[in-house]
Amino acid sequence: MYKGIGTTTAKAGGVLGLSLMLMFSPAISAAPVTSPAASMLLAQNSISLQQAVARVKEKYGGRVLKAEPVTVKGRAGYRIRVMSNGRIREFLVDASSGKLMRP
What we know:
With 103 residues, this protein is an alpha+beta fold. It has a single domain (28-102), classed as Nuclear Transport Factor 2, Chain: A (Roll), CATH 3.10.450. It is 41% helix and 32% strand. It contains 3 helices and 5 strands, in the order αβααββββ. It has a 5-stranded antiparallel sheet with strand order 1-2-3-4-5. Strand 3 (75-84) and strand 4 form a beta hairpin. The model is unreliable at 7-29 (pLDDT under 50).
């Protein structure tokens, strides 16, 4: 009689679990760019945010969920969050060299 309720509840629980995992996952030591000095660093980059995203997608595939400029230990970079095979991975790309700082 109530066969559909269990399936809907399981799907909602999975979405809620994923949302909570993303919300409370430990933050990495990369801060979004907000200062004028950090903006100057990004202006001197050898690669753009779009190029960094393309490199990560080319190497790891998946769907980009978020990409933003950050500073890590005084260096300009990009934080790129990708979902692939049900897993969410976060990458840091050095803005001046284009190399992955943290896979």
